[in-house]
Specification:
The structure holds two protein chains of two kinds.
Chain A: H1 35-40, H2 51-65, H3 67-75, H4 87-92, H5 99-114, H6 116-120, H7 122-125, H8 132-141, H9 150-154, H10 161-174, H11 180-191, H12 200-218, E1 233-236, H13 240-243, H14 247-261, E2 265-266, H15 284-301, E3 305-308, H16 312-326, E4 340-341, H17 342-351, E5 367-369, H18 373-378, H19 387-399, H20 430-436, H21 438-451, E6 455-458, H22 461-470, E7 481-483, H23 484-491
Parallel strand pairs in A: 1-2, 1-3, 3-4, 5-6, 6-7
Helix pairs in contact in A: 2-3, 2-10, 3-10, 5-10, 14-23, 15-16, 17-19, 19-23
Chain B: H1 3-32, H2 48-61, H3 63-68, H4 70-90, H5 100-129, H6 131-136, H7 139-160, H8 166-177, H9 188-203, H10 211-214, H11 219-222, H12 235-238
Classes of the chains: A mainly alpha, B mainly alpha.
Bound molecules: iron/sulfur cluster (2 copies).
One iron/sulfur cluster binds near residues 76, 78, 99, 155 and 156 of chain A.
Chain lengths: ~500, ~240
């Protein structure tokens, strides 16, 4: 499909709930996964002949496996409380991007085939057959949900549209209607070991190059070790950290932290990717087998701790699912949480006085923090309530003199998705990504205008890539976005504590 | 025994069976369905005790709805609290002697009848007037409100417009409960009121009224935030465990 021309939404003084523009995003679909990509994951290469029966059967199977799906399809009362909570609705005005309307795309089919009222009184309850048109709508609008779960926070029953989107994608994959971006990346992880398709030797070169850069900049011999047997900590980080900007600045930050704290650590070429797109396509087996590389690597290297770098969805999978998918972790040091977020590691060290941080080094920056949805709503940190909000901010405060939070309705668990999460970070969805970023851009503009903010820190590789791309559409500088450990990296005084 | 009494008696037995049986079936179905992953939403309490508190706040105060929309919260909460009082008041038709709380609730229950209708009317107005909510509404959403409002109006009608022989109604209800049928007064308002209530009972387990049991089974709300401390494994996921290093 050709990428259409579109207009970047105007930033308003105050957020306004848009009036409905039916079909405003009906044209937005991601590229379909070609047969080889599909087959590599064990999905049919193209739409199967009896797709309707198979889709219904798959839905039945998922209804039996996931209580969330069953309860959420039954429970919605159409109260509309979630209707103005989705950034894609706020940015596009397309009514099918209201969370409840998105759910209804599946609910109407569920009702038709699985409920008494839908079987016998379809019109009354809005039940519909799974037709080609409905399937096309699924592909369109279930690929306009970043599975950010903001709607779930505001629903009186906690109905999580992400669970429904994941189920829909799983059903579509199973009948041969996969999405190229996510499925291609999952294939790369299995084949090469990471999302970017960076092979082991290239990774080694990259790390050696970074060590030189750090040496040139600081004079310190900071190492970025790979596959070191018996290291204390294995760091699993999104592969974007290895050579995307600004991601790599955070990687340098982690390395400096380990260096100054004197903790032996290593990266793994086998698990050279924290990201796990199995989550995005709602496939338990994929999510599990992608995670399993981490267990294998940890056992193989004989490490005692596992830490996870700055990546939102990876942290959700690690924090909430790893114990289920690849636990138990009885072979690791039980004095530390398993797994540990890099921010937890750094925060601990800061509190123990193990790091020398010079805030003045960041004085050219006026900083705000974007809570990434998967961290904010799908995980925690530090074994304290709201630790996932407190800890990154405490680290920032230890590294900078100027920090300002954005509007309360746009941070913490109410945070807005960057617009590129959930497997939508692809150029074929650029219009959606730009428009979906609107609520965050409005909140950002406010702190830019009021406080002169010039740096938005975040702890998610997808957020960083997405903002790097969409900030210019809103007339912001693309370099405004960066990692929390990028700030740590600037502030840390190496050599001062050795 | 009139045909009318027999009909209503049978209708109420049937409605009760559908309500109780249907709900029991649904609840068992929810309980049986596995929850493979930990998906609590923030702010998730770390312990089961905390979860109970969170659930109580959701059920009694509609906490999340309050964060979400003050209008829907106000109207929805008004309706639900009023409905609870009305139901409490109605217990006097099913208890002999009448329990003290029920006796004490009588005057409140009466005002609650008006509050309930006001809440429902407000919710319906939102459904009709707010473009987004109109868009997501199905005919059944409107009918549900009509049904509840009609039940409320006929109920109040019997109190304020055309009185019904409540003593006879109570005898009928107690008779149903003890399988010792008593005649039902052939008062049109009463008959409509009772028929609608029976309809509401019957559709409960096949309609969105399932939100009542559903909330207790919502994994985002009923799970504790302890995924790193406690391993959670669904039965169907266990068979994948074998192929693990
Ligand atoms: S999960 Fe996020 S993107 Fe999806 S419908 Fe809800 S608010 Fe929108
Ligand atoms: S807030 Fe929940 S119950 Fe209300 S319409 Fe949205 S999903 Fe349905």
């Amino acid at each position: 499909m050709a990428v259409v021309e579109f207009e970047t939404p105007r930033l308003k003084e105050y957020p306004v709930i848009p009036i409905l523009q039916a079909g405003a995003m009906a044209h937005s679909q991601p590229f379909a996964a070609a047969a080889p990509i599909q087959k590599a994951l064990g999905f049919p290469g193209e739409l199967v002949e009896d797709w309707q029966e198979q889709a219904i059967a798959k839905m039945g199977e998922l209804l039996g496996k996931y209580r969330s799906l069953k309860v959420y399809l039954d429970t919605c009362v159409h109260c509309g409380a979630c209707s103005d909570k989705c950034h894609y609705f706020l940015g596009t005005g397309d009514p099918k991007n209201m969370p409840v309307a998105r759910q209804d795309l599946m609910r109407k089919v569920y009702r038709r085939y699985f409920t008494f009222t839908g079987k016998y009184f379809p019109k009354l309850v809005g039940a519909e057959d799974l037709t080609r048109e409905v399937l096309a709508e699924w592909y369109t609008y279930f690929n306009q949900c970043s599975e950010c779960r903001r709607c779930s926070v505001f629903c009186p029953y906690g109905i999580d549209t992400a669970e429904i989107t994941m189920a829909a994608r799983e059903i579509m994959d199973s009948i041969g209607m996969g999405q190229k971006y996510s499925n291609e990346i999952i294939g790369k992880v299995h084949k090469i070991g990471n999302n970017l398709g960076l092979p082991g030797p290239a990774l080694e070169d990259t790390l050696a190059g970074l060590e030189e850069d750090i040496k040139d900049a600081t004079g310190a011999d900071v190492k970025l070790p790979l596959d070191v047997q018996g290291a204390e900590v294995m760091l699993v980080t999104p592969s974007a950290d290895f050579f995307s900007e600004p991601h790599v600045e955070s990687l340098i930050g982690y390395a400096k932290v380990f260096h100054q704290a004197g903790i032996s650590w290593t990266l793994s070429s086998h698990a050279s990717e924290a990201g796990n797109f199995g989550l995005f396509i709602g496939n338990y087996e994929q999510m599990r087998s992608i995670s399993m590389r981490v267990r294998e690597a940890a056992l193989e290297l004989g490490v005692r701790r596992i830490a996870v770098g700055e990546c939102g969805h990876a942290w959700r999978v690690a924090y909430s699912f790893w114990n289920t998918l690849i636990g138990p972790f009885d072979f690791l040091d039980q004095n530390y949480p398993v797994p540990q977020h890099i921010c937890e590691v750094t925060y601990d060290l800061i509190r123990r006085g193990a790091l020398t941080l010079d805030k003045a080094a960041n004085d050219h920056r006026i900083v705000t923090f974007h809570d990434s949805c998967n961290v904010a709503r799908g995980s925690s940190m530090g074994n304290m309530p709201r630790g996932q909000f407190i800890i990154p901010r405490e680290i920032i405060r230890a590294c900078v003199n100027n920090f300002h939070d954005m509007a309360p309705e746009s941070i913490y668990e109410s945070t807005f998705c960057c617009g590129g999460g959930g497997g939508l970070l692809t150029d074929d969805l650029i219009e959606l990504r730009v428009k979906g970023a609107l609520p965050r851009m409005e909140a950002l503009k406010q702190v830019v205008d009021e406080h002169g903010v010039n740096f938005m820190a975040t702890i998610c590789a997808i957020c960083k890539a997405q903002f790097g791309k969409v900030l210019p559409y809103y007339k912001f500088d693309m370099d405004m976005v960066g990692g929390v450990h990028q700030l740590v990296s600037s502030a840390i005084r190496l050599g001062a504590k050795q | 025994m009139t045909v009318l009494t027999i009909c209503y008696a049978l209708v109420f037995y049937a409605a009760t069976v559908l309500l109780v049986g249907g709900l029991a079936w649904k609840i068992a179905d929810y309980a049986r369905t596995p929850v493979p992953l930990k998906i609590p939403s923030t702010p998730a309490p770390p312990s089961t005790g905390g979860v109970a508190l969170r659930m109580a706040r959701e059920v009694v105060l509609f906490e999340s709805l309050f964060k979400s929309s003050k209008w829907i919260w106000g109207l929805g909460w008004l309706f639900h609290v009023a409905l609870a009082l009305v139901l409490l008041r109605h217990l006097r038709y099913f208890t002999e002697p009448v329990w003290t709380v029920v006796a004490l609730a009588q005057p409140f229950g009466l005002y609650a009848g008006f509050a309930m209708i006001a809440g429902l009317a407000g919710l319906w107005a939102r459904r009709l007037l707010v473009e987004r909510i109109r868009y997501i509404s199905t005919p059944s959403d409107h009918l549900m409100l009509v049904l509840l409002i009609a039940i409320g109006v006929t109920g109040l009608g019997m109190k304020y417009v055309s009185h019904t022989d409540v003593v006879a109604v109570k005898a009928f209800m107690l008779g149903l409960m003890y399988f010792d049928w008593q005649p039902l007064p052939a008062d049109p308002t009463l008959l409509v009121h009772l028929a609608l209530v029976a309809a509401l009972m019957a559709i409960f387990p096949v309609s969105k009224l399932l939100h009542a049991p559903g909330i207790f089974f919502s994994p985002t709300r009923n799970q504790a935030d302890d995924s790193r401390e406690r391993r959670h494994l669904a039965p169907w996921a266990e068979k994948l465990e074998k192929a693990k290093p």
